[in-house]
């Protein structure tokens, strides 16, 4: 197999990584990663204490250079979750930045500090496309997190498919502030630039000021999640300098959750640049994207990436007979971007795939005749069956966000003796002293979508519960 990082074969002095005022060239990254790789070699798996730091990037590259699977650990995880991950993945050691204080769950594990200024070489390691590169733990709706085993093949093919879709080259400079224990920040945001031979500037912590600074200083691409772009949209009216900075970007990309159409439009009107969305999961890496040379259609995640097969299926598993932009089905995908298994969970692995190898994503979508995909929500939490209709929560959320009295919105279903399920809106009002009432919101949605999609219940909140990636935690939305 060709190397994951061709630019490290004969590395030069071009910039590779920058975190704040700390940086590494490709030559320095290669030397540090190879020095660390010699200490990882011969193991099945190593854990990485995945802070937003140079050390995390060097540690993961070192593991990959050694042919060892890296297990990124979320520094915000509690001892119980960390204990489960360590027992399940059985890493031989943990790689961490010098001075990082590790929690008690890791104290029995051999620790190796990452020296980003070390110099060393590593012997060539024989690896195959199917060898594990990462084991990323993903939380399901029930039970402890499952370890998705991502082979080297999946990382290479996803990053090369994105290079095709986004015209991504070694001349690009990426800026982001995403966490490095997740595939968005780590695979796309760190390994992506390194595979292209380009560079990445990590903000440490996201801020609109940091984004503007880096775009003004030559960064060409911005990766973010909807909460970040929402903060950008909120800041733009009072910050013309931010608008000018964003207008300089070649590509603005949002992922990990749907970006509300309202935020799309606010950013586009202020900057003249359209945010493009892509769709992926831990288990599949990237499946679709709006292409850099395609139509930037707000509210969609674009078309399947090269090499990815995608279909929508009915509840009985049959494929939707026609893609009309209205019929809702579950997304199933197949291709070289997929994971190989859930570690130690053959039952869960088997249940995740159909007999002919399609992965059941659990995401519900509609597809336009020209192939564009629009996700309407998760099968488990966002598909509402009301009055004989299958309704996706996402389009109702977008409609609610167009109301001037709504700052944030989430939509769920709850049992209804007549309708089967009724639509419930959870609203963070723009003005808490004067929140929009149910009748006003119902009329607003019915006028934009259809009467059967209007909310029947509304709850007003001060904030929506979200996870580290900005996704709304709908299972936490309960009303006493």
Automatic annotation (TrEMBL):
It holds the Pfam family AMP-binding. Residues 395-471 form the AMP-binding enzyme C-terminal domain. InterPro entries: AMP-bd_C (IPR025110), AMP-bd_C_sf (IPR045851), AMP-binding_CS (IPR020845), AMP-dep_synth/lig_dom (IPR000873), ANL_N_sf (IPR042099). It comes from the Bacteria. Coiled coil: none annotated. Belongs to the ATP-dependent AMP-binding enzyme family. Residues 10-343 form the AMP-dependent synthetase/ligase domain. This is Acyl-CoA synthetase. It comes from Streptomyces hokutonensis. PANTHER family: ACYL-COA SYNTHETASE, ACYL-COA SYNTHETASE FAMILY MEMBER 3.
